[in-house]
């Protein structure tokens, strides 16, 4: 099949760019030092490629992601890097032989892990992003409480998410070090072998974690590209120009393609179309001023501003080289 | 089942609010004068309720929506209010006995309708929103071209989408009249019985269309509520508080619920949590300053800023009254 035959909008992944991204990160973080985050692609076929590059364990954000990874035979060492109150579905996976570790940051989440049948936890530490995670000074007591409940505490995690896309690289590095100092202090109180954290934006400047949770590097988006993190744009949303308006009076000409905000994560703003000027997105359309004249029926490649929620809107992605569709992968980790 | 037993995040629909919204719009636009837009809910079970309120025909934005409506037995009169280049899937539905009308705004889309086996079209007219739609002065010639291709031209459509959420009601009404003057002028050149347009925001001030394409009124969102369009918030995203941080130094206290930007359309900005202050959304979390102290495990109702892309992220919605789950509906019109 040719990519020209794909119904649009369609996620297309450049096979060579993907492979280069996977290889580069696996070189920097070999073997179990990389724990790729599947939330960025939600695709077990892609996770299999990451496993082939040497990563035995993965990071997940939802129970469904954990379940899907187990079904795909990738349940060797899964970290749910998130707090959950109902862990019964996770306990059922442990019962079946999967290794599942869950984040805890409160007595309630420790109780939930125990009740649901999860046996291993990381203490989630707030290192500056106001989201989940306990205060660093509370980490030791939570670890003690978890052990008192019979749980194995593997160590700590702490995500410097607020730093990932800082454009100033030196500033990003400086602040990452400060965040990780908090995490390492908590780790000293908690114990265990694992210090888990990091993301694509800090993956080149965070030597303090024992495992790197990066995810976006595989497919990339325009927000990370703007931060200069050094991976190639491997994913585009392929669209078709469905309407063209010539200049009329004071109104410049524009074109409309069938890649709308229902096909794009919009929390980081509009997508980009290289060389063109994006005006706005509607549910099923992007209106843009094309760099060169386009015609109805032309194809266009759209770069999402944020990869994670973009992928979550699609049922499948197509691996392409030149114009050939090599494989079609179900985005099989969507939902909750 | 009780809504307290639902896994979160979950779409919950207030049965009474939904029913009131459907009844109010069907009173204003009875029978075939209302052509509800299914893109706002992507749920055939909800469309069946709209049909029960007297609407025989529906508006769709994607081929998949048209297909799903036919499968659900709602293919009496479906308008794909969008331009498509590959209409073979639509032609197959016509072949099976469904009535499918498609929008055209160019020679290419007329050719596509003909080639794919669609027999009925509306000429899509640009009434001010720079998206699809021909110039009003070109509509007559396009209608002639369509008829020359053997297509039945049922009339015109034109969507004043840029006016829907204008907060000044009088201004919205004034501009709607100006847009519809363009559409009616085009209609005079095109002929046919149908003048299709409008949306929830202009549904009370657009007497010029023969059929109203409103969709958001059924479930509503905070953007339309801010514009004061007069329908009740029927849909919320139910979440669970997974982490609570007390005030610490200069940092105020906050809570985190499991309703993130992957569970919310974000193009209109952050969701709201009535009485609370939303700080920001991450992939799977909303961080907020609660009005009253909350505890880990508490439930929270989140109001999306934009209903259409919110629904597109979920597999199902639950119809609830008080705390009882009455029905669970698959969101079966997702994808393309």
TrEMBL record, chains A, B:
Key words, A-Z: Isomerase, Lyase
EC annotation from Swiss-Prot or TrEMBL: 5.1.1.1
Ranges in a coiled coil: none
Keyword hit for Cell wall biogenesis/degradation: no
Molecular functions per Gene Ontology: alanine racemase activity
Every D-serine dehydratase-like domain range: 234-321
Lineage top rank: taxon: Bacteria
Uppermost EC category: isomerase
Protein family per UniProt: Belongs to the DSD1 family.
Name used for this protein in its record: Alanine racemase
Species: Actinomycetospora endophytica
């Amino acid at each position: 099949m040719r990519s020209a035959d794909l119904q649009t909008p369609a996620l297309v992944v450049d096979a060579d760019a993907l492979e280069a991204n996977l290889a580069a990160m696996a070189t920097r973080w070999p073997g179990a030092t990389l724990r790729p985050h599947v939330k960025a692609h939600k695709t077990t076929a892609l996770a299999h490629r990451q496993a082939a590059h040497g990563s035995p364990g993965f990071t997940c954000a939802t129970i469904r992601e954990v379940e899907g990874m187990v079904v795909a035979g990738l349940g060797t060492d899964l970290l749910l890097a998130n707090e959950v109150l109902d862990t019964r579905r996770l306990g059922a996976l442990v019962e079946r032989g999967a290794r599942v570790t869950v984040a805890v940051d409160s007595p309630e989440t420790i109780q939930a892990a125990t009740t649901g049948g999860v046996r291993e936890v990381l203490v989630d530490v707030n290192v500056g992003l106001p989201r989940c995670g306990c205060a660093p000074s509370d980490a030791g007591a939570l670890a003690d409480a978890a052990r008192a409940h019979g749980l194995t505490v593997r160590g700590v995690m702490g995500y410097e998410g607020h730093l990932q896309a800082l454009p100033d690289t030196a500033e990003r590095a400086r602040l990452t070090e400060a965040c990780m100092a908090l995490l390492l202090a908590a780790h000293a109180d908690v114990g265990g072998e694992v210090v888990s954290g990091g993301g694509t934006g800090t993956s080149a400047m965070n030597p303090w974690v024992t495992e790197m949770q990066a995810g976006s590097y595989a497919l990339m988006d325009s927000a990370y590209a703007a931060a200069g993190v050094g991976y190639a744009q491997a994913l585009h949303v392929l669209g078709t120009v469905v309407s063209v308006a010539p200049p009329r009076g004071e109104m410049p000409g524009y074109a409309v393609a069938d890649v709308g905000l229902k096909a794009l994560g919009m929390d980081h703003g509009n997508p980009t179309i290289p060389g063109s000027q994006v005006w706005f997105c509607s549910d099923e359309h992007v209106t843009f001023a094309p760099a060169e004249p386009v015609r109805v029926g032309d194809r266009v490649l759209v770069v999402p501003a944020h990869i994670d929620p973009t992928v979550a809107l699609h049922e499948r992605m197509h691996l392409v080289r030149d114009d050939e569709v090599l494989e079609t992968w179900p985005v099989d980790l969507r939902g909750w």
